[in-house]
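# step 3/5: fold
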Amino acid sequence: MTPDPELELELTGLTHGGEAVGRLPDGRACFVAYAIPGERVRVRVVEHRRRWARAEVLAVLRPSPDRVEPPCPYFGPDRCGGCQLQHVSPERQAEMKRQVVVEQLQRLGGIASPPVASTVRPGGSGWLRGYRTSARFAVDGVGRLGFRRAASHAVVPIDRCLLLTDGTQALRDAAGDAWAGAAEVSVRTGSDGAGRAITLQPGPGALPPLPAGDIPVAVVRAGRPVALRGEPAVIEHVAGVAFRVSPTSFFQSGPAGAEALVAAVREAAGAGPGDQALDLYAGVGLFARFLAADGAHVTAVESSKVACDDARTNLRPVRERAAVVRSTAEDAVTRLAASGRTVDIVVLDPPRRGAGPELVSHLARLGARAVVYVSCDPAALARDARALAGAGYRLARAVPVDQFGHTAHIETVATFVPA
């Protein structure tokens, strides 16, 4: 029986996408955006499924003491979908994200009492604003830049984003709003002002004219950047080390978040002279650079040619202890396991889907004393944690790193050791 479309709900849970969860009279879970667990709300059910429903808030009847006024005018229903938690106090945001990691490891990972540390906040008191040195904008029908509405392809034009550094916001301002013909436009600035670049994903028509000035611009063709003007690579600085980052190379969205991840990975890996380390999904060599600095001999595995070129540049100061191999992680680990070779440390930073059971099974054959898993999705981490448990590894510690304040996204550095 379908319940009334409007009703009152007690919200008791949280999804890893940032929605609060209540129960309908028929027992189904009901997901509610822009609400906080512990609140009582009046809602309208807007989507029905057999096992769950989704509702929108009509009124907050009993607000949480952690509810705050959102700082951004673009935040809220039918507006920008980039942030999900601006209505939540900073302290509660951090705890909510930790709880998501705990619950996913329990539910999907099968770990009764996951050893999850308190959430790390990069950048100290400024962690909620001005932390992004890069942003990817959608383009609306008349060429204006913006972000997509939540659960929609519609573009909300946006001229200012409080998550961008001052330099990145200035680059967005300089980019303007005359990008008709482009599908997406990305901006990136180097930390400490070391370069800036605009990268566009072309649409089906002609390319738009370049913005005035001398800002480097690249277009992505066949997955690779082609410079249209200037040098589009930038230099990011992490813990005092410079990293070249080309337009299509993956890099963390800001140096403070990258530094927090590096610190957590170095502590978890415990690398030292003589250690053999494998860095999978290595990108531009971020983790490999510091593992080698700690004395380990590192093989950095990356499938992107552009990122491999960046990694070779970035690892040049430690080239005696670091090598870059262009390969998928799956192929590299399969070959290594088949050869009978072992390693001491594995670091992996897979895409959102996770590593997967096949890679995990081969990885376990390498005999590492520590598998350090950097995850951008708690559900994928939990699934891979279950696979690692089946392959003989247990979760020793998980550290949530909140490098995306005001959003539901959470990075986690998880350490697995032989059971």
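# step 4/5: annotate
The chain has a mean pLDDT of 94.
# step 5/5: archive (pending)
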